[in-house]
Amino acid sequence: MAHRLGPQSQARVEVGAGLADWLRILKPNIMQLVVFTSAVGLYLAPASPGPLLALLALACIAVGAGASGALNNAWDADIDVRMARTRLRPTALGRIAPAEAAALGLVLALLSVMVMGLALNWLAGLLLAFTIFFYVVVYTIWLKRRTPQNIVIGGLAGALPPLVGWSAATGSIDALPVVLVAIIFFWTPAHFWALALYCDRDYARAGIPMLPVAAGRRATLQQILLYAVLTAAASLVPLALGEVGWIYALAAGALGAVFVGQSIALLRAFGERRAMRLFRFSILYLFLLFLALVIDHALPIPLALGA
Description:
The chain is mainly α. It has two domains: 164 residues, UbiA prenyltransferase (Tetracycline Repressor, domain 2, Orthogonal Bundle), CATH 1.10.357.140; 134 residues, UbiA prenyltransferase (Four Helix Bundle (Hemerythrin (Met), subunit A)), CATH 1.20.120. The protein has 16 helices and no strands. Helix 15 runs antiparallel to helix 16. It starts with 18 loop residues before the first helix and ends in a 9-residue tail after the last helix. The N terminus is likely disordered.
């Protein structure tokens, strides 16, 4: 890894990075969704660690997500300078040296895993460690520059937070959080490829084999539709498990129909603005789906009459 953490070829390391720069390399936007889905997993769990430990668990997950972001910034500094979407990252601008970002990421990763293991339980700690490892080593270092399936396989890292939250509360792995992992896993390619279609020239310039670059627009649109259908189907599995009521059932059905419908519309008539609309809706989709789980759990209306 040392060859990637030395001086950058296209940006001189500047002095005087501010607090905003250090916060930015932690990728707070991604962290928000990670913490939210983790919180839902923790809330749905049949056992509760208590409010203070629950907050500590979410803090560990947030710090672990930030650690992943810092390590990703450190490794990708050489390609971030070539992409319009990422060229203003502090490591790309040279405000923070990649080695400094990597050091911060490693310290935060170790801290988050140790506190999670010691304060909650070691299953949650190990799952958090695996999530960080998978995002940094498997996705960022190994897959991202090698295969157009990078986001499919690597998406597992972003899918695991609900399971981490559940295990922090229970110390176990159960069917419902595994289904939540599957929903996010199938959601990730459709979500990210919609953005990749908008930024395909960026990825081509950086030499990253994202699907639109490697397989073309038509194949990407077909894959987006496939994964939107898989996401909608996976979102109905909690009904089959008997874990949810009518509130979630209606929300999952309606949101899935819109997600698939927008994917079909994009396939029929591609446009960059439509791709960005689908990207933005996919974020709203996941937020509303998981919010529906929370409301359904708080105000249960059984699917079976008389249940």
